[in-house]
Specification:
Largest sheet: 2 strands, antiparallel
Helix content: 55-70%
Structural class: mainly alpha
Number of strands: 6
Order of helices and strands: HEEHHHHHEEEEHHHHHHHHHHH
Oligomer: single chain
Shape: globular
Strand order of the largest sheet: 1-2
Number of helices: 17
Length: about 425
């Protein structure tokens, strides 16, 4: 009875994973202005994950996964040790609460009692609400706030909101229920690969129609997030998947072709409508794109000053922006941002020791996926890993924010399950 309840509750938690509902205990500031990286709060989804973790009591894992879990424990220990030396312990403590929550999500996902197919279906259904809101945001230029969803109001004319500028005006990028369109794009990219994997199990016309609709929705909404990192991550993942399929001479199921065709048609239709905005994202001469490139370039120039201020143990979890503000005070709050590279951000915040254990943990998962690459599941595992890595090289949210941490844990657990555990 408890097992069925915990499984049902976990599926519900995965369904609500895109929702940002949280209990805010305090809000801090950077350079005198409120900052998303100084919010001290706990997300409702974290409480659900904790409850499921406690209900499961002793988890069940295969031997290979136990080795991976040991590496994850070492990484957590290094993160807490870095926190003990940090000058910004308050924000660090709440960040590690999110990290621990993501760790519990990983443990529940890799538990052999968790049915991966059901989890991925719940994840895809959970994206329906963000997709609906995303279309409203782009087509109307805004959306209201919602305490239930945990989202703020959006308006294309408000400064600081993510938009694309063309000669026709400002187009609001699709946020969905997420803090930034890039995060929404990351979830959608994972959703596309998950849907491709589920296509193999489609039986009957009803399931095929559902997958066709899913392919069209995911492909079209991914375009209007205008997230270059998500586009590139998904593209590289799909290329790797196709290359391995051709090399291993694996033939996709016959209904995969109509799904791919319909999804491609929806993408082309969306591109036809929003081609000016898509092209603008690759035009460095436009004002917003030039600013974006300049900001990201300058972040690599200031990375050294943060990293070398504490290279061994790091400046502390979630302390990157506060260290920047401390080193160069008086700048506008928006100029203090984590470096748009998850790997370098972890290196700066946890130091060489913390990054070593992080690399050890990820290395264990990578080795498992590469050893199984001759199997269909293994191919998908490697493709998903490539997508996540590409996104990590161009964005910071996979470590800096709860929805990114949740996505990272979710994806790494899927890779483990596809590599070793029957789904």
């Amino acid at each position: 009875m408890i097992g069925k309840f915990s499984n049902g509750l976990f599926l519900l938690a995965v369904f609500f994973l895109p929702w940002q509902t949280q209990v805010i205990l305090a809000e801090g500031s950077v350079s005198g202005e409120l900052s998303a990286y100084a919010v001290l709060g706990v997300y409702v989804i974290e409480a659900m994950i904790l409850f499921v973790f406690l209900l499961r009591m002793r988890s069940r894992y295969e031997t290979e996964i136990r080795q991976t879990n040991k590496a994850l424990y070492l990484f957590l220990a290094a993160a807490f040790f870095s926190l003990s030396l940090s000058r910004f312990s308050s924000v660090g403590w709440f960040h590690l609460i999110h990290v621990v929550s993501a760790t519990m999500l990983f443990f529940v996902m890799t538990d052999e009692r968790t049915r991966l197919k059901s989890v991925l279906i719940a994840f895809l259904f959970g994206l329906i609400v963000p997709i609906s809101i995303g279309w409203v945001q782009v087509l109307t230029g805004g959306s209201p706030d919602s305490t239930l969803l945990g989202i703020a109001a959006k308006d294309a004319e408000t400064l600081g909101v993510a938009v694309v500028e063309t000669v026709a005006g400002r187009t609001l990028r699709a946020y969905g229920t997420f803090p930034h369109p890039n995060i929404f794009g990351g979830y959608l990219a994972v959703g596309v690969i998950a849907l491709a994997w589920l296509t193999r199990f489609a039986k009957g016309k009803r399931e095929l129609v559902g997958i066709l609709l899913g392919a069209g929705l995911l492909g079209s909404i991914l375009i209007i997030t205008f997230s270059r990192s998500a586009w590139l991550g998904l593209l590289m993942g799909l290329i790797v998947l196709i290359v391995f399929m051709l090399k291993q001479k694996k033939i996709p199921p016959r209904h995969a072709l109509p799904v791919m065709s319909f999804g491609f048609i929806c993408v082309l239709a969306t591109l036809f409508v929003f081609h000016s905005e898509v092209f603008a994202r690759f035009n460095p001469n436009l004002r917003l794109e030039a600013i974006s490139i300049e900001e990201r370039t300058s972040q690599y120039q200031t990375f050294g000053s943060v990293f070398f201020s504490s290279p061994i143990f790091g400046v502390g979890p979630n302390a990157y922006t506060f260290t920047l503000a401390d080193q160069d005070p008086g700048q506008p709050a928006w100029s203090y941002q984590p470096i748009h590279n998850t790997l370098l951000l972890i290196l700066a915040e946890l130091g060489v020791i913390g990054f070593f254990f992080f690399a050890l943990f990820v290395g264990c998962i990578s080795r498992m996926s590469l050893m199984s690459v001759r199997t269909p599941n293994g191919m998908f595992a490697v493709a998903l890993g490539v997508s996540l890595t590409v996104i990590a090289l161009f964005d910071h949210y996979l470590w800096s924010l709860w929805p990114g941490l949740a996505l990272t844990a979710f994806v790494l657990a899927i890779i483990v399950r596809w590599s070793k555990v029957e789904s």
